[in-house]
Amino acid sequence: MNQPRDLFAAPANATPETIHAAFAAQLPTALHWRESTAAERLTRIKRLRDAILARREAIYAAFEKDFRKPPAEVEASELLPVLDEIRHVLGRLKRWMKPHKVWPTSTMLGTSAKVQYQPRGRVLIIAPWNYPFSLCLAPLVSALAAGNTAIIKPSEMTPAVSALLVELIADVFPPDEVAIFEGAAATSQALLALPFDHIFFTGSPAVGKLVMAAAAQHLTSVTLELGGKSPTIVDQTADLKLAAETIMWGKFINNGQTCVAPDHVYVHETVKDAFVSACRTVLQARYGANDAQQKQSPDLARIVNLRHTQRLAGLLQDAVQRGARVSCGGVVDEAAHYIAPTLLEQIPADAEIMSEEIFGPLLPIISYSELDQVIAAINAAPKPLALYIWSRNEGHIGKVMQRTSSGGACVNHCVAHFAHGNLPFGGVNNSGIGNAHGEFGFKAFSHERAVLRSSPIMTIKLFFPPYTAKRNYIIRKVVDMLRLPML
């Protein structure tokens, strides 16, 4: 079914003509791939894996250009998630693809049934800029595992990584299987105008609403991986040293540009000063003992561009002008796209940083006295993508887990749930729709088809007209039986 690789002179050249050509070319492939075997799908995924590993040094260089991102973070946050997803798929895909039988309900006795997993067809993957490699290719792995063709739109805000992805995809797949188009809003709009069978979008809630509105024009299903202000709670029983070490990692990896990063921390008033001191000690040990050393640290990534640097600088300035106190950091160099790891205290409720998603290296620390007050504040805000609690008190942990809602949650940890392949990753309402990763990602790109087969005993005939007195009596008795507990 493959068409020649030169079907399009430049797969990344996003014009209405090339976009429509790729979309049309993928239709016969998508129809053919409905019958694809696990072995065929895994062969494609293995080709992708091998191409990634062959470009390791080029991937480092691309992230150095776009983010000045340390190679260790490239490995841990860009390569590891994709390769782990691939490894998971290689070991489990046959099991996931296998139709599973279901028992008949009481009214369906005499039938057999199963759930069959079918590819959705042609899918669109719109990737974000904060993790432009892993959040592009990990969904692609799930899409390929489910037997779909794909068109990818990488972020224009990370041009070096985007160019690398274009070269990688074009080298591994012909465009009638997987195509990729660079560009800004106009490219996204042209793609969203097409009747895809599924759209997988990762980005902000504001843009997610636009994607959902466009999908609604064709009743296209969506997976929306969004964001929000993920709160963290540190109560008076927490292991403060471990909490500080882990939260400082979760917050400042990728310089805070992480959708599940702790956005703000509620700390019990009796341990707040000790917690802040522990955080300051961790930051100095990891990035440097003073401002100059931290700015020169090779282990701290940069803000993606000038616009986002200015946005973060504005949040910091607004908070300070309204009375917030900088406990650590606060240094800004807009030209270098640099903002130091910053801890803020005594933030007034009307500061912009308390309502805007931060998505950068600024961490508000909020003192509290009663856990119920924190839970009320969390429930008054849109449902976050993640929620974290640090505590040794099972009563406190249980109360937070039962009385709040979030896409995911960690107890005495943060961010790590994203990497757990057997857990669903996704948001709720404002923070997202649908799940990804592992079997959940496979299902996101699959249609779960209900298949029922009759047997020689056709009990449904009891419900056929004409509705005689005897038949009415039998139907009524069947309905009355449904009041009984399920066997």
TrEMBL record:
Q: Which GO terms describe its cellular component?
A: cytoplasm
Q: Where does this protein come from, organism-wise?
A: Duganella flavida
One annotated GO biological process? aldehyde metabolic process
Query: Which keywords label this protein?
Result: NAD, Oxidoreductase
The positions flagged as active site in the entry are: E225, C259
Supply one GO molecular-function term.
aldehyde dehydrogenase (NAD+) activity
Record-given protein name: Aldehyde dehydrogenase
User: Ranges for the Aldehyde dehydrogenase domain?
Assistant: 8-450
Please report which protein family the annotation says this sequence is part of: Belongs to the aldehyde dehydrogenase family.
Q: Report the transmembrane regions from the record.
A: none
| Database matches in PROSITE patterns | ALDEHYDE_DEHYDR_CYS, ALDEHYDE_DEHYDR_GLU
Under SUPFAM superfamilies, the record lists: ALDH-like
One Pfam family assigned to this protein is: Aldedh
